[in-house]
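OP here, attaching both records as promised.
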Amino acid sequence: MARNTEVIRQWTILREIEASSGVTIRRLAEVTNVTTRTIRRDLEALQEAGFPLYDVSDEGPKLWKLNRRPFRTLDGTAFTLSELSALYFSRTLVECLAAPPFGQDLRSAFAKLETALSPRMRRFLDRLPDVIHVKTEPTRKHDEELQRAAIARLLDAILHQHRLDMRYHSLSSRREKRYRIDPYRLVYAQGALYLFAYVPRYQQMRTFAVDRIRHLAPLDETFAPVEDLSNTVFPHSLGIHHGTPEHIELEFASDVAPYVQERTWHPSQALLTRRDGTLVVTMNVCTDGALRSWIRSFGSSVRVKAPMTLVQQIAGDLDRARSRYR
């Protein structure tokens, strides 16, 4: 987690400098809770990475500033028509997927891009949604203002590694619970935002739906990460769950085999096409609700071969579904 901590700290430094008219190294050290020597190394690293940071020294202490137009070199860039078309199309896609509070910033950024277009080019590009359209994923209903406030507080706590007191509505118990959490990461998946957080009381990492958070309060405590999440985003699930992976074997009928074969459902998958056109798929995933829902979506065109516990679960699901039509 050390590398992630460094990146988070350096991002915090950039934001602090950008939000001010000049900030001292001592102030940056206080904000990030590290030594001034570490801050100097961070500033050197950011300058080497190309960020337009500079220092000024008048009569008082040296102040660090950020060039207010760091991307001024783009002013002379001439986009081609195909590049502008691609950007304009991506606007539809990105705005559909953007989680709050980033949606408004994206709309503002694209609005600035539009000012560089001539009226005739804008009229042409406005026709693109009639040619190419993006179907949005189902999204959860939520209180936008409440969620925006929760996300802002979570982002701040994640960046500064501050422990939080949280009230959360649990769907499984259908009641509100209280947690002390160490927030690690926000993840956007399946039309909603989720929080990865370590719960010291249970000594385990848990996933919380942000729209079910009822209240967040920062505690006067910081935390040291106990788990590296640099490459972990529900790695063993077809959905948004955690679990121990198992070896899964499925047999698909020939009528759906081409559809299944042309997609990557999970990085661990292996495919074997038989002479009769049926397809055997193996993968190492957790047997959660997302996997069972995916299997059931193929109806009679799929058969679970292993493990036996999953065979029994799917058979039970089908029996219960059948009983509803009797």
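Record two, same layout:
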Amino acid sequence: MKQIILLILCLFALRAFPQSLQLHYDLRHTVSPKTNPQNFPTLFFEYFKAQTDTTSFIKPVAFLFKMEADLQGSKNNIGKAYIQTSQSFRFWKPKVFLSVQYSGGLGVTEPKQYSYYIGNSLGIGPGYSFQWRGAYFTAMLYYTRNFLSKPGNDVMASFYWWKGLFNYKMEFAGDFELYTLNRNQGDELTRNLKGKMVSFFGEPQVWFNLNKSFALGSKQLLYYHVTTTANVFRIYPSAAVRVKL
């Protein structure tokens, strides 16, 4: 609990910047009790800054920082933490930009000896943003280096969207990621596997704005080859509240 209070205080100290803090209640045990021992809260923080400085030679386009803390541990302590950050820029006239991205994290299990790392991943690749029928879209294609026990060279396609509805009383947003990973990741469980597998992750979300700062909503977590190597597509919903700081 002390970690959560410290995190919230740090985020409010940055309130001069556009950002949002979300509290989700993940309902995966309700949806699939056989494969998930519990429902749990998740704290999610996002900071995004569009950058439009066109006077410099290297023109920054946007900066994104996302942090997730799943409170699925004993007594709702943090059981998993994940961060993702990216910076996009260009030094040419076409609106295609170059993006550099990092992600990584860790998880704590019971018993503790089965705790794990979410391997560091570095990516670089082109992206393009556009508007269509009042919605905003960004598509990116990355070459990624995954620093697992057995490192791998992979590709990832990312797609983000946002649209305001009913005079921005409602928002529909989210992202999809389609990416490859080595089947053999250098651990005991996968050491006899060969080749690549294709994974998919998505988090479409809908928000109903109560005012300029507070919103109620839901996120659908879509998994394929993310939480398990079995060929199973999983959907886990959440109920959420969002505060724009």
